[in-house]
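The protein record filed here.
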Amino acid sequence: MLSGTVTSFDAHVGLGQITSSDGVIVMFHCAEIADGSRAINVGTSVNFELLTKFSRNEASAIRPA
């Protein structure tokens, strides 16, 4: 499990970015938020896994840390 911080999230589109603890930016879709809420605040510390979709890594199983 990786850790990072939500650095952007557009609730209307459902897309966001997490900056991992090692500085890598990882995109995510709101469907990957583990609690099913489909919304998360910018600045939230999270734990997540990487999932390869369409030949790129995305965050999945996103949970507040």
Q: What stands out?
A: The radius of gyration is 10 Å. The chain has no helices and five strands. Residues 16 and 45 are 14 Å apart (CA to CA).
